[in-house]
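Quick one, tokens below. Sequence please?
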């Protein structure tokens, strides 16, 4: 459940390039991506990364990893449903990272769009979905979620979207 070093560096570089000071992660796992974002925020002069997971044990493990890295002071931990938690935050955010259950991707987009600042960046993981998106026989909820999300964001004129073939596919989308 981690994004890998190449995608992690993409997250770090993007956060640095836009001078991000506020990042919200939907589906943070054990804190691997959180560490990349927190490192960027520290180099940008500070800020907050919101780490959001359903599971208290996973959140505690992430907290331990981030404390050992000296980055926990830049992280706010939420143990809750990610999209609802984002919706309850004041925002706007400079960068939002989405790596929740794939069938939830389409419903997350309106909340993300509302909470991301103009000029902000959305990064979405697993957009090639292990090549399942290319299999016309695959009608699973997760695969359908990735397909629908891709159609929604690429057809919305408020976004400039690139799909990078990094690991399992990463969309980097700029909100106009």
């Amino acid at each position: 459940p981690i994004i890998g070093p190449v995608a992690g560096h993409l997250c770090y570089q993007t956060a640095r390039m836009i001078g991000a000071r506020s990042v919200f992660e939907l589906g943070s796992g054990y804190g691997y991506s959180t560490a990349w974002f927190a490192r960027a925020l520290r180099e940008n002069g500070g800020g907050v990364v919101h780490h959001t997971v359903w599971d208290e044990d996973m959140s505690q493990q992430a907290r331990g990893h981030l404390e050992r890295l000296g980055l926990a002071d830049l992280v706010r931990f939420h143990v809750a449903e990610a999209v609802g938690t984002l919706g309850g935050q004041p925002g706007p955010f400079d960068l939002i990272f989405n790596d929740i259950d794939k069938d939830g991707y389409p419903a997350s987009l309106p909340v993300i769009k509302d909470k991301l600042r103009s000029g902000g960046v959305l990064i979405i993981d697993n957009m090639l979905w292990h090549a399942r998106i290319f299999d016309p026989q695959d009608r699973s909820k997760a695969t359908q979620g990735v397909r629908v999300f891709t159609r929604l964001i690429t057809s919305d004129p408020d976004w400039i979207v690139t799909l990078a073939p990094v690991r399992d596919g990463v969309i980097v989308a700029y909100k106009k």
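The longest helix spans residues 141-155. The mean pLDDT is 96.
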